[in-house]
Amino acid sequence: MDCYNSPMTDSPRVLAVGLATLDVVQVVERLPGPDEKLVARSVDVDAGGPALNAARTAALLGCDVTLVTVVGAGAIGEAVRAGLGAVRLDDRATGAAGAAVSTVLVTAGTGERAVVSTNATGVVVQAEAPDLTGVCAVLVDGHHLDLALATAAEARRLGIPVLLDGGSWKPGLEALLAHVDVALLSADFRLPADLALPAAGAALSSGSLLADVARLGPTVVAQSHGAGAIEVLAHSRAATVPVPRAGRVVDTLGAGDVLHGALLACLAAGPRALGAVVVDALAVAAEVASASVAAPGALGWARDGANAGQLRCDAARFRSKCEVP
């Protein structure tokens, strides 16, 4: 079936709230040692950051996406705006606030990346919630916490699914988790010791990170493990989602952001996507993330038109499956 000529191509509206950066990416043979200089094999400058990459991914998968972030004016802001593609921008910059700059080193032989960034440290934003009229799902990445809290709380009040990109623990994240429906964590995510409490009840495995996070609010908690299976605790039931093999790994930069953006595109089906089929949504997201590491850059997978079209169809079919009969 050609999904481009079917009713499944309706573009659901989603929001991504969080960090935007300007990424300076250099491919190197290996990481330099102390006081060592290396010649890069290539260099690229592009917009990036977890919320921005997730937003661009969701747009490529058929969603109408607005990114709520801090971009600001000047050359850095202009460069980030140029990289938004089809994503709309709600810029919450105040005063001299602007997008962060990230320096990224990608190791040529393995595709592994090392990142240095200021993130959203010390940036003051306009924190009131955006207009959520017609929005089907919201992603927050924990950056610009006051803005994320206001948005997630309003989304929860309106019954709109909220997805957390749990790349790492950030101070105050426990308050945000109270308004989150699905928390998708990175392999490196850890709770502070005072929040990692013993599990209550046999249904949740004792000492489990997923159970500890679930007690803070989300009904679905999952954790990615690179090429390994995604662990899931959904409505107190454990499951795993295999990750398709990527073949040769070219670049892991932004793979986690792509995973979250693809899951956001599936959760755009609305609250029905939070039930038993949420595991199927994670399977679709894993397909997209696997494709992303086989190409350079977070969105290199989209240059393969046939493959990108198939992944877009997969996301559209999932959303269609969740529609009320």
From TrEMBL:
Domain Carbohydrate kinase PfkB: from-to ranges: 13-298
Any matching Pfam family: PfkB
Superkingdom as given in the UniProt entry: Bacteria
Keyword Iron (UniProt): no
Keywords, alphabetical: Kinase, Transferase
GO MF annotations in UniProt: kinase activity
PANTHER family for this protein: KETOHEXOKINASE, PHOSPHOTRANSFERASE SYSTEM TRANSPORT PROTEIN
UniProt name for this protein: Sugar or nucleoside kinase, ribokinase family
UniProt organism field: Flavimobilis marinus
